[in-house]
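Hello Y.,

Per our agreement to keep a running log of every chain we model this quarter, I'm adding this entry. I've kept the format consistent with earlier entries: sequence first, then predicted structure.
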Amino acid sequence: MKRGLMAATAVAGILVGVTACGSGGGTKTGADGFKGQKLTVWVMNGSNPAQWTEQVSAQFKKKTGATVEFKVQQWNGIQQKLSTALSEDTPPDVVEIGNTQTAAYAKAGALAEVGDLKKEIGADWNDAFNKASLVDGKQYALPWFAGNRVVMYNKKIWAEAGLKGTPRTRSELFKAFATIKKKTDAEPLYLPGQNWYFFDGLTLGTGADLVKRQGGKWVSNLGDPKVAKAMDIYKQYQAFSTAPKNKDEATPQQAEVFAKGRTGALIAMGYEAATALKANPKMKKDIGFFTIPGETADKPEGVFLGGSNFAVAGMGKNQELAKEFLKVALSKQNDRQMVKESGWAPKSPDLADAAQENPAVAAAAPAAEKSGGTTPLIPQWAAVENIPNPIKSYMTAVLGGKSPADAAKDIEPEINARLAKQ
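Predicted structure for the entry above:
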């Protein structure tokens, strides 16, 4: 999932504002004592599915007497917008934050501690899901959802090419793409040059780290030969695509390209099927999923476990009501709905039954278990992903013909400068 992050200077600005004003905890009146109040929740475009939103809103109103207003935000420019909002006197009460963002906002003092809620409603959540919500051992957010990429393919096009079954190794996948290119007029794969979370998954598969400790500080590790190997694999994938080398998967939305019906496959999140079907409902029977195969059949390709946390604004005036919302939104019933409706991975054993009902979740599970990981969970990482993302620039440079080593040399000074910001 695309996750834009705020600049370190913006984090510093939040820190000043929060430290000066302190927490806005509000007055606790009990779960049923908020009648007539309104809670504002920021969610990102595509995050809150329709049925989940409807039932959470109804349950929240029934429990508290208050209403919830979901304000959908666009990814473009969100880091600056969210940074500003959390530093104001009247911030949104609850915000969706990417799982790699939470450490930066928490370190800045912009989020309220919610450890009491974790004990109450999330005692059985998998540690892998909750890890990105912890900073220095304290709970500053609660995991909402997470998942990883799969191959989303058009069954009709694969049938046109005479392909049967699904590939179990990377070489078999590339052979399938080559067959589609030879035997049909479809594009085998739509993969823009800057789908960098897929690239990050490939680095995990090669055992590479994007940063390293050197001289007591974090510095870039982009020049590691293992990173170059991951980029070479990405380059092999991208050779089957005519997508722009200087754009990401949201520019344009790749699922909308897939919806036109002449793309063999995407490297996609499970929820992107809904985007495609919204654009072209007739494709429902043609969409299938399978695990991204790795070099050998026993280990899938490395994948980035992307997702979002819910956090309570540290300066929010309705923190008690915000916590009541989280109790509702993250209940077992509503977490199960997220898994079924959007294709996210289950975050506790009790949700395994819901995963069986969603083919995208089933396809994602093997890689999540054997090959999943995240970007570095350090506050300094926020600045690295800030627009313009230097790793995206690295990818475009390599796809344009520059060697991985030379591209890394060009980009690493910028990454190091961002990592050095406090």
